[in-house]
């Protein structure tokens, strides 16, 4: 009859965690170095175009649209070299670009004024969808801005013009924010994807 | 004598009792100490493991790393395109950096005219940046030649969200002169449209 000896400890010895701890303490700074708290993405743009030359007159019916989005202190301005932007958008030219001084020449293009302190990205999207529907083969948009406009507004504007959302038109900012990009299978439907920077010298 | 022997027995019994108590106390003390040590290292181990997993989940293998600071806050965007290994230029609120070297000082969103081509304030070309980017382009061309590939001329621009459009175009123009023809703007993923 085997009997358990009295006084013999049956406790299992604890693991020695110190070497593991040492390893973990060494690993943490190494991984910390490669850790990013901000996930970085990129936005592609084409090479800048400097100096907006006049389009050469041509008899061809299909002139390039040469659509330009200008970001101004007062809002967005849409212009098109190859077509009448007001006609494309179906707006009255006088109402589209009201001049501060009635005697002065109205600024060309269509102005989308700011709403309070913020740019009206919803209206910009709505108008760009209308132009895209009129000119479905065009994909190039020139982007220009006043010299003091912050880089942040340029990126936000590019976000608004690149992709076609589920709806063609939004009236509320909240619905626009939540709007998902329209997909054709797995491919995202593009609106004006080829952004070209432009500066008038 | 009997009293004396009894006293000795008593002394021995007291000693045995005292020794027993001391040993018991010592053993208990050792056990308490061991328990305390174990608890501390286990908690620490748990904390370390959690930190390690958190860091591993955020570990990035992206070729472009952005160290955001007070002078460099990149704008947020809805883009889903990931960065690729290209030459890069960093434009912060205070300086322009190429290959971890500060090239030009930026003050109030502008570059001083002494850093412009021919000292002309209206020039779009930033001369020290042009020199640094030309050097980068030459190195990239050489690397492309050794790999048997073609120099693609792509430049990633990591810029602070508050820099003005004028400075951005000066940087792009200068890069264009240094044979970089395609650009990628670094942005923070996860931004929301219109905000």
Strand portion of chain B, in percent? 15-25%
Task: Label the overall shape of chain A.
Answer: elongated
Helix and strand element order of chain A: HEEEHHEHEHHEEE
- The number of helical elements of chain B comes to 3
Tally of DSSP helical segments of chain A: 6
- Judged by helices, strands and strand pairing, the structural class of chain B is alpha/beta
Count of DSSP strands of chain B: 7
Average pLDDT, all residues of chain A = 79
**Numbering strands along the chain, what is their spatial order in the largest sheet of chain A?**
1-8-5-2-3-4
How do the strands and helices of this protein lay out in sequence?
The complex is a heterodimer of chains A (about 200) and B (about 200).
Chain A: H1 18-34, E1 40-50, E2 67-71, E3 75-80, H2 85-89, H3 93-96, E4 110-113, H4 121-134, E5 140-145, H5 151-162, H6 173-178, E6 183-184, E7 187-188, E8 194-199
Parallel strand pairs in A: 1-8, 2-5, 5-8
Antiparallel strand pairs in A: 2-3, 3-4, 6-7
Chain B: H1 2-57, E1 76-77, E2 87-91, E3 95-98, E4 101-107, E5 110-111, H2 127-147, E6 154-159, H3 165-177, E7 182-189
Parallel strand pairs in B: 1-7, 2-6, 6-7
Antiparallel strand pairs in B: 2-3, 3-4, 4-5
Helix pairs in contact in B: 2-3
Concise overview:
The complex is a heterodimer of chains A (201) and B (195). By secondary structure, chain A is α/β, with parallel strands linked by helices.
Short key terms for the protein model shown above:
heterodimer; A: 201 residues; alpha/beta; six-stranded mixed beta sheet; two-stranded antiparallel sheet; 6 helices; 8 strands; elongated; B: 195 residues; seven-stranded mixed beta sheet; 7 strands; 46% helix; 17% strand
Describe this structure as you would to a colleague.
The complex is a heterodimer of chains A (201) and B (195). By secondary structure, chain A is α/β, with parallel strands linked by helices. Helix content of chain A is 29%, strand content 21%. Chain A has six helices and eight strands; from the N terminus they run H-E-E-E-H-H-E-H-E-H-H-E-E-E. In chain A, helix 4 packs across helix 5. In chain B, 29% of the residues are buried. Chain B has a seven-stranded mixed β-sheet with strand order 1-7-6-2-3-4-5, with helices on one face. The longest helix of chain B is centred in the first third of the chain and has 56 residues, at 2-57. The radius of gyration of chain B is 35 Å and the shape is elongated. In chain B, strand 4 and strand 5 form a beta hairpin. With 195 residues, chain B is an alpha/beta fold. The interface between A and B is large, with 51 and 62 residues. Strand 1 (40-50) of chain A pairs antiparallel with strand 7 (182-189) of chain B, so a sheet runs across the interface.
């Amino acid at each position: 009859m085997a009997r358990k000896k009295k006084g013999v400890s049956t406790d299992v010895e604890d693991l020695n965690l110190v070497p593991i701890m040492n390893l973990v303490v060494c690993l943490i700074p190494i991984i910390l170095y490669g850790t990013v708290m901000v996930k970085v993405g990129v936005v592609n743009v084409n090479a800048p175009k400097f100096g907006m030359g006049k389009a050469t007159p041509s008899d061809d019916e299909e002139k390039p649209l040469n659509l330009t989005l200008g970001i101004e202190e007062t809002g967005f301005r849409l212009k098109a070299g190859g077509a009448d932007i007001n006609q494309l958008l179906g707006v009255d030219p006088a109402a589209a670009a009201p001049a501060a001084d009635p005697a002065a020449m109205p600024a060309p293009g269509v102005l989308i004024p700011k709403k309070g302190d913020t740019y009206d990205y919803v209206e910009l999207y709505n108008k760009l969808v209308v132009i895209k529907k009129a000119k479905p083969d065009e994909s190039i948009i020139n982007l220009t801005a006043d010299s003091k406009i912050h880089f942040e507004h340029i990126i936000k504007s590019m976000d608004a013009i690149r992709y076609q959302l589920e709806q063609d038109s939004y009236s509320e900012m909240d619905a626009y924010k939540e709007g998902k990009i329209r997909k054709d299978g797995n491919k995202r439907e593009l609106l004006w994807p080829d952004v070209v920077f432009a500066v008038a010298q | 004598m009997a009293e004396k022997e009894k006293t000795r027995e008593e002394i021995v019994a007291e000693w045995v009792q005292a020794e027993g108590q001391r040993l018991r106390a010592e053993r208990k003390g050792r056990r308490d100490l061991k328990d305390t040590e174990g608890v501390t290292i286990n908690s620490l181990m748990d904390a370390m493991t959690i930190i390690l997993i958190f860091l591993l989940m955020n570990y990035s293998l992206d070729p472009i790393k952005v160290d955001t600071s007070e002078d460099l806050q990149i704008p947020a965007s809805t883009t889903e395109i990931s960065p690729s290994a290209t030459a890069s230029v960093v434009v912060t609120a205070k300086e322009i950096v190429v290959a971890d070297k500060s090239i030009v000082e930026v003050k109030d969103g502008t570059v001083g005219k002494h850093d412009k081509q021919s000292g002309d304030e209206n020039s779009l070309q930033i001369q020290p940046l042009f020199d640094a980017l030309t050097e980068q382009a030459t190195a990239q061309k050489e690397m492309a030649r050794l790999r048997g590939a073609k120099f693609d001329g792509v430049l990633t621009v990591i810029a602070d969200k508050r820099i003005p459009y004028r400075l951005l175009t000066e940087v792009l123009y200068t890069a264009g002169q240094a044979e970089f023809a395609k650009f990628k703007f670094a942005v923070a993923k996860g931004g929301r449209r219109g905000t």
